[in-house]
Amino acid sequence: MKIENKKDVYFPLLCGFLSAIFFLFIILNPKIREFEKFLILKKFSFLSLFIFPLIFLLGIKIASVFRSFFPLIFQFAKFAEVGVLNTLIDIGTLNFLSAVTGIVKGLKIIPLNAISFLLAATNSYFLNKAWTFEIETKMVQKEFIVFLIVSLIGLFLNSTIVFLGTTFLSYFKISAGALMNLVKIFATLVVMFWNFFGYKIFVFRK
Predict the structure, then answer these.
(1) Which of 33, 43, 96, 160 is deepest in the core (most CB within 10 A)?
(2) What's the half-sphere exposure (Cβ side, CA atoms, 13 Å) at 28?
(3) CA 106 to CA 187: how far, in whole Å?
(4) pTM score over 0.85
């Protein structure tokens, strides 16, 4: 099925390319010792700049095939792709800040996690407004305040999981950097569902 809306071509390509950039922050993080066993992954990681956009575009094209049967699945596919970008912005930024500061766990990781989460949340607001939910009205103060409340609840949940996971699961035989990322991925998956329904019900109502 042909994608009729040009935005459903441009945005997947953009999300895919930006996702690849933040993916590189994770792959190239020296704190994750496990990646040293997969040098070929680092060597060819730049190919993600070309592969990710194509995968994102293909995903939207596949979702468009089922659009007439399950309208929500197409919207969720767009939300998922924005979500992947947000996740990689969040995790990629956290990895970058962790690599720079050397912080990988405990209370000190909370400010780093807050920065990465809020950066991803800001991206989430604008992309979900323009593409996922296609809200064409200008940003109003009330809408942004509600968005901020939903995001702050998500931040609290995310940071709590990251803090508890990196602090109390450190006995696993993996590097602190790898543990940080595993816990962060779990936290992001939990908060993703909260964000989808929170944004859809409270923020981006048509």
Answers:
(1) 96
(2) 16
(3) 15
(4) no
